[in-house]
Specification:
- The mean pLDDT is about 85.
- This protein has a domain of about 35 residues.
- By secondary structure, it is mainly alpha-helical.
- It is elongated.
- It has three helices and no strands.
Length: about 60
């Protein structure tokens, strides 16, 4: 590994550590969890359920 590559890796690690302490990280994480939860809690569309039933019958 070259000296420049080592410096680049160290710089990235440091910036990652700084980001981990950033309040923006918490806000992003909170918003992503809320979005994920809203998608998970959406009802399954009737068309999709119908396709699943047809696939089960075709076995």
């Amino acid at each position: 590994m070259t000296q420049n590559a080592k410096k680049s890796d160290e710089k990235r690690a440091k910036s990652g550590e700084e980001f981990a302490k950033d309040p923006l990280k918490d806000k992003i994480g909170t918003n992503l969890r809320q979005l994920y939860d809203s998608v998970v809690n959406e009802p399954v569309p009737d068309d999709f359920l119908s396709l699943l039933e047809q696939a089960d019958k075709g076995k």
